[in-house]
Amino acid sequence: MPLPERSGTLLIRGGTIQTAESALRADILVRDGIIAAIGDGLDTSGADVLDAGGLLVIPGGIDPHTHMEMPFMGEVSSDDFRTGTEAAVAGGTTMIIDFAIPEPGGSLIEAWRVWSERAKKAVCDYAFHVCVTHWSASVASEMETLVRDHGVNSFKHFMAYKGALMVDDGVLLSSVGHALSLGALCNVHAENGDAVAHLQKTLLERGITGPKGHPLSRPPSVEGEAAQRIIAIADVLGAPIYIVHVSTADATDAIGRARANGQRVFGEVLAQHLVIDDSVYDTDDFRSAAAHVMSPPFRPKSHQAKLWAGLANGTLQTTATDHCCFCAPQKANGRDDFTKIPNGTPGIEDRMSVLWHHGVRTGRLTPAEFVAVTSTNTAKIFNIHPRKGNVSVGADADLVLWDPNGTRTISAATHHQRVDYNVFEGMEVTGLARTTIAGGHVVWHENQLHTVPGSGRYVARPPFAPICFPHADTGAAG
Ligand SMILES: NC(=O)NCCC(=O)O
Ligand SMILES: [Zn+2]
Ligand SMILES: [Zn+2]
């Protein structure tokens, strides 16, 4: 089928609309980037037609955790906002939330400006969590400005990376408490950074300098302890909290207990952690082992069942990729010292297929749950629903014509990510994006990109997401 012109009006005909709630056979009329009508027998004069026969029409994926062109560990991650978002749309993701990270001791607003400049070449919509890496009166005041004037409703904290991004409990208490008063949600990378630093030192002293030392320096209990600690801090303050890249049974259980007690704790899991285990470090091939160095590291396989169950039973709500690419020459910085290997793995192009193949096709997730954990729940938690993560009249036309039976083999040889390996290399997956529509325009169709750098828009996110701040939603005293 030929590619429709960028005419502004598009009819998606013959598909089954799959949302997080239901499946419905209906056509969709898109006008000026917005879903204008849903139904049969729509007035479609002048519209370009996309045939969705045999396909599902789903909300475009939202990846709430990416790091495009991020300076980190002496390098800059290799996918920029153009290449990274092109890879995103090729895989059915139409929005990312990246992280603006201040210089040490620096301004949060300046970081937001720097990242806004970098993101101007994005081909799909984007937003930023802003990182809090230190505490002062000016940080508090900048958080307020970011929420009020810049559409930021989430702040990120690292409990790991001692001597760089890590914050202590005092900073966490101040920041989470302040964010609560602003109606903003705090994100946390939960690993005990002191324990990691201690174990790294001990391992190096014992002569363990290769990538095998990486998982040994970050055992599951390091994540479990930090998850419990931030949950306790949030409980003390009565604040919601969002834990990024949950990789262990330990942290999943901690979130489950907190939620059972009524705490608003949200958990994110990465596509990579769901299907790849720690056997990737069990090799003397430095390049291959270093390629898999990310934090938290890949875990013993036994953790994966808990992560999948967490997604299915609602303990974990979102899936992400922590897309953070470093090529082999960058990873080689740590050839003689695993603590110097830039941490991060790619994933943005393959998250949706991996989730469909290993989630839906195995019966772990229903198609509705797939939509919930790939877009809708993220849109609700970060307060951009129903504009995003949704197929309804008035919503943004970020849509994917999803082929539930289409098959492809994942490979760095064919992917669009600007990185020289793929952690899912050779994996044959069923379920793929035939066509991706971002902001009403076809950006991926029949295996071809049709993107326009700069067509992505910044998405301002208002504070007090109802799912995080139910008191604010009802008007009751909080
Ligand atoms: N995850 C990772 O290894 N790199 C990116 C930074 C972070 O999210 O911790
Ligand atoms: Zn992290
Ligand atoms: Zn990250």
From TrEMBL:
> Which NCBIfam families does the record associate with it?
D-hydantoinase
Asked if the Swiss-Prot or TrEMBL record annotates the protein with the keyword Hydrolase, the reply is yes
Required cofactor(s) = Zn(2+)
Instruction: Give the matching InterPro entries.
Output: Amidohydro-rel, Hydantoinase/dihydroPyrase, Metal-dep_hydrolase_composite, Metal_Hydrolase, Metallo-dep_Hydrolases_sf
Q: Belongs to which family?
A: Belongs to the metallo-dependent hydrolases superfamily. Hydantoinase/dihydropyrimidinase family.
Q: Which PANTHER family match?
A: COLLAPSIN RESPONSE MEDIATOR PROTEIN (PTHR11647:SF1), HYDRANTOINASE/DIHYDROPYRIMIDINASE FAMILY MEMBER (PTHR11647)
Question: What EC number(s) does this enzyme carry?
Answer: 3.5.2.2
Name under which the protein is recorded:
Dihydropyrimidinase
The Amidohydrolase-related domain covers 56-443
GO MF annotation, one: dihydropyrimidinase activity
* Pfam families reported in the protein's UniProt record: Amidohydro_1
Q: Kindly state which keywords UniProt assigns to this record, in alphabetical order.
A: Hydrolase, Metal-binding
